[in-house]
Design a protein that fits this description.
Shape: elongated
Structural class: mainly alpha
Strand content: under 5%
Helix content: over 70%
Number of strands: 0
Largest sheet: none
Distance between the termini: 28 Å
CATH class: Mainly Alpha
Number of domains: 1
CATH topology: Helix Hairpins
Radius of gyration: 14 Å
């Protein structure tokens, strides 16, 4: 998910997507631990998506404080 796409979402949608991304990361970690995960690049992509979502939420939080 691109940063411009994330910025177009509302706060509630971002929080929902963040929850989904964290669940996906947890599933991927379990798959990796059991040896079922074949595409390990999905772990990196998932972590970066979570970081992007957190970044946009933090930016909005800081803009509200100003």
């Amino acid at each position: 998910m691109k940063l411009t796409e994330i910025r177009a979402l509302s706060d509630d949608e971002i929080i929902s997507r963040l929850s989904d991304a964290k669940e996906e990361l947890m599933r991927l970690r379990f798959q990796q631990a059991t040896g079922e995960l074949t595409d390990t690049s999905r772990l990196k992509y998932s972590r970066k998506t979570i970081a992007r979502l957190h970044t946009v939420l933090r930016e909005r939080e800081l803009m509200e404080q100003e």
